[in-house]
Design a protein that fits this description.
By secondary structure, this protein is of the alpha/beta class. Helix content is 39%, strand content 12%. The chain contains 16 helices and eleven strands. The protein has helices at 18-34, 62-70, 73-82, 103-109, 114-128, 137-156, 173-181, 185-188, 197-212, 230-234, 256-266, 301-314, 352-363, 397-408, 419-427, 435-441; strands spanning 93-98, 132-135, 167-168, 220-226, 241-242, 247-248, 252-255, 324-328, 331-338, 341-350, 371-375. β5 and β6 (247-248) form a beta hairpin. α1 crosses α2 (62-70) and α6 packs across α12 (301-314). It is globular.
Length: 459
């Protein structure tokens, strides 16, 4: 039986990836022997099972597998323990960034408001020895703004450049991994070049914040709390690494579920934790109430880009977007009509089956969408398997419904309304069209391992 996310006709893993896991553990065993035992020695190693993400044999090398195994609670506590020792040369400033889609999980699980969940999670992390806790919403602001601008530019070039449209969203690392490792450059050339919120947050913490604090980037250990396992793989990308400082922009990714495991190990309940305001990247300021972007289960790239494009390209001020479900609830479309003509056609494609059908149509030249918000997890980011998965390995539908209710109740703030972002474009990035802004906020995607039969699968 093949993995639900496998892209091969024949399964390349006859055993349930035990061999890869043991090899990865062996690759790290030399480090384990020299590590000092501590109270968190019993925490589990990071494991990405076939059912957890899109990264199976065709996507992940043995070396990458070993590095993913290092992204776990033990690595987090290794740094915390080093900070308690006398040798200050090995001390790190520990910064944790929280994804907006993780907060509803803690709120729903512990019956808290989302603001209480954010503050108590911050209080818990700081009780462990974390110095700063940030909200990645500001990074998503940058990512959405850059994606909006890129779409308008691509639309205006659509008659001159073959691969200008459609444009695919670039925020989901599972989708990106699949596109680069399995699909061809015919597909990757359509992916938006704006970095994901996670990686822009890495640039903010190790670039902007480090400069404000007079710190070298390698003196900061940056952890991201995220809803899915694929974020661990994204943190390993070579283009998100600064060789000058021997420093990754994100050093470790922990899923929401892994944070709960730490709480259980410590015998801590969220309801007993003291509330502490989440930190801001700006000196002397704290974050206010939690805000989100438009979109019910993700950062809302489709809605923001659609409204921006309608205004910029056609002078239409769209107040509310109407989704039309097609084959299933995870494949929906949005259109804009002007003078009896459909001028914009967007789609949201969530889940691997919808992604594959989308790519098949693109290959056959029967794909008529201008933009697609692509997410690997059915149901979107809230359904990431690092937080929405029950003990039986299946989605906890009751918990997911609670998370959706919490998330949709969070107030929406437009990226354009964030004054800090506007100031940073000028003061830190030297303008929206500068080379520094391009280098900091964008990357590139290309096919790594092309497969001629990767799409010939019957579902």
């Amino acid at each position: 039986m093949k993995c639900e996310n496998c892209s091969k006709k024949e399964c390349s893993k006859k055993q349930k990836n035990d061999d890869t896991q043991s090899a990865s553990v062996d690759a790290l065993s030399s480090n384990d022997g020299s590590e000092e035992k501590n109270e968190f020695d019993t925490l589990a190693n990071a494991k990405i099972l076939l059912s957890d993400c899109l990264a199976c044999d065709s996507c992940m090398t043995l070396e990458e597998g070993a590095r993913v195994f290092q992204q776990n609670q033990k690595e987090f506590f290794r740094v915390l323990n080093l900070n308690k020792k006398c040798d200050t040369s090995k001390h790190k400033v520990l910064a944790v960034s929280l994804c907006p889609q993780s907060l509803p999980y803690f709120a729903a699980k512990f019956n808290l408001s989302v603001n209480e969940a954010a503050k108590r999670l911050c209080g818990f992390l700081k009780s462990l020895g974390v110095h700063y806790v940030f909200d990645t919403t500001i990074a998503a602001d940058f990512s959405i703004l850059e994606s909006q601008r890129e779409f308008v530019q691509r639309y205006q070039r659509r008659n001159q450049e073959e691969h200008a449209l459609p444009m695919f969203a670039s925020a989901c690392p599972g989708w990106i991994r699949y596109a680069e490792r399995v699909l061809t450059n015919l597909v990757t050339s359509h992916i938006c070049t704006a970095k994901s919120p996670q990686q822009i947050m890495g640039s903010l913490v190790k670039g902007y914040f480090a400069r404000q604090q007079n710190l070298s980037p390698d003196k900061i250990f940056h952890v991201v709390v995220a809803p899915c396992y694929d974020k661990k793989l994204e943190a390993l990308r070579e283009d998100f690494y600064t060789a000058l400082y021997n420093s990754a922009e994100v050093d470790c990714v922990l899923t929401s579920g892994e944070i709960v495991q730490i709480m259980e190990q410590k015998n801590v309940s969220m309801k007993d934790v003291t509330e502490v305001a989440v930190d801001s990247l700006f000196d002397g300021l704290k974050e206010g109430d939690v805000v989100r972007h438009e979109g019910k289960r993700s950062d809302g790239y489709l809605e923001h880009i659609f409204k921006h494009a309608a205004k910029e390209l056609f002078g239409v001020d769209v107040k509310e977007i109407t989704y039309k479900a097609l084959k299933n609830k995870d494949f929906q479309e949005v259109t804009l009509e002007k003078d009896g003509e459909t001028v914009l056609r967007f789609a949201a494609a969530y889940g691997f089956r919808n992604i594959q059908n989308m790519v098949l149509k693109l290959k056959k030249g029967k794909f008529f969408y201008h933009f697609v918000e692509v997410l690997a997890c059915p149901g979107g980011c809230l359904n990431g398997k690092g937080q929405a998965q029950g003990e039986d390995g299946k989605a906890d539908r009751a918990l997911l419904a609670q998370m959706e209710e919490v998330y949709t109740a969070i107030p929406v703030r437009l990226p354009e309304a964030n004054l800090h972002v506007q100031r940073m474009y000028q003061d830190w990035l030297e303008g929206m069209d500068s080379k520094k802004a391009q280098d900091t906020l964008h990357t590139s995607y290309s096919a790594v391992n092309q497969s001629t039969s990767s799409l010939d699968i019957k579902w």
